[in-house]
Amino acid sequence: MKRKVSQATVHRLSLYTRYLGELEAREVDYISSDKLGEGIGTNAAQVRKDLSIFDRFGIPGRGYPVSFLRKRLAKILGVEDRVWRVAVVGAGCLGTALVCYSRFEKQGFHFVAILDNDSAKIGTRIGKLEVADISDLERIIRSEKVEVAVISVPVQNAQQVTDLMVEAGVRAFLNFAPVNLNVPPHIVLRNVDLTVEFEGLSFHLINH
Amino acid sequence: MKRKVSQATVHRLSLYTRYLGELEAREVDYISSDKLGEGIGTNAAQVRKDLSIFDRFGIPGRGYPVSFLRKRLAKILGVEDRVWRVAVVGAGCLGTALVCYSRFEKQGFHFVAILDNDSAKIGTRIGKLEVADISDLERIIRSEKVEVAVISVPVQNAQQVTDLMVEAGVRAFLNFAPVNLNVPPHIVLRNVDLTVEFEGLSFHLINH
DNA sequence: CTATGTGAAGGCCTTCACAGCG
DNA sequence: CGCTGTGAAGGCCTTCACATAG
Fold it and tell me: Closest approach of chain B CAs to the CA of A19, in angstroms?
């Protein structure tokens, strides 16, 4: 890695990887930076800059070898020949939906547990998983070797649950609770906030 | 509006608004740019710059009036004294979860319809809504005066469904399908791609 | 004396433009 | 001759620092 990889670049690496997967399924051998950019909604210069951070993947006059590039990017993203073990905390609408959605499994994110504090939910089955009692959190995280957690609990429980998970050894969080979580500096945290997304739409509808 | 409002600023306006709502509930009257920044995970300078785009909301020596500022920001975001009518297309795991999640209603996003093409789902009840037949799309969009649509259909149907919706008059889309949708320039589109989010976590776990 | 509002500086990301490779 | 890789330029966003208001 020659330079710092920006958040924006990481985001696009994901999109390139997915689009290259589609091309691979359609048995396309080579793709130009121009077409690859078009496929994910950016331009050729951006594509070449992004890829040049890591290596010289392309062949002047031909473009990028689709299959080779997809594998290399998947490796860079950490999703080639590898599975991440994920726990979902909060078996509400959203937590349930994530577990039932199969694409993540295919992409190397394996859901190994779903936890809740509601005794009416504990023991019930969601997809292939049985809802576990949140008071068993630490034991489950350790025995299941959970590395990534999804926070889909109500706002008022989110920070506490996150603290417990950090203590139990979880290193990365995808947070759906609409609150600013505080985590130690070595912990990876990304927020998905659907209200923010809706309000983004609303702002542009009103101001354009 | 004195200058162009960046995407990043719009995002933070949402976060400020939410945090100010919490402060309002706790009956806090004034907040400094420093504390407001801390509350959403940014700094005082950023807060002051963001807010100064629109007006002089603050009182030197005291800070910002919480309730007044919250209302003004909600107005700017288009969620004060107003309801947006939203349709969800695709009654799978995710579409169902969104309709059952009540926070959006409170924030001014009112779900008025959920559509699917699966005859096994059509007519069934999800929350307060009955799943409608997607072949009635145009009629429903017009009669329900839908302005915003959520795309939660499989990738292969996403573009077609979006085209139909644009034609029927929908002006804004929140797209959960992992595909780059093409829409006319005057249409507002935001993508929520959970695979990208997971891969973002993965990248940072591997490279730090 | 505290905390805002804002030009200026700094830093990061994107776009340009072209040398050079296949 | 087409398309990549990459310095340079441009543009946008964040941070700094301080004059100014309450």
Answer: 8
pTM over 0.90: yes
Is B14–A196 a contact, with Cβ atoms under 8 angstroms apart?
A: yes
Question: Fold for domain A84-196?
Answer: Rossmann fold (3.40.50)
Cα dist. B174→A23, A194, A202, B84, B194 in Å? 25, 9, 11, 13, 13
Tokens 């910002």 label which residue? B64
Tell me the pairing of strands B148-151 and B129-133. unpaired
Q: Residue B54 — φ and ψ, nearest 5°?
A: -100, -40
**Which pLDDT score, from 0 to 100, does residue A194 have?**
97
Which residues on chain A are in Cβ contact (under 8 Å) with B197? 174, 190, 192
How do the domains of chain A map onto residue ranges?
7-77, 84-196
Domain B7-77: CATH architecture, name and number where available = Orthogonal Bundle (1.10)
- With distances taken from each CA to the C1' atom of nucleotide D16, the closest residue turns out to be B45
Instruction: Kindly report, residue by residue over A24-43, the tens digit of the pLDDT.
Output: 999 999 999 999 999 999 99
Task: Name the residue among B84, B173, B193 with its Cβ closest to that of A202.
Answer: B84
* Residue A102 pLDDT grade (very low, low, confident, very high; cuts 50, 70, 90): confident
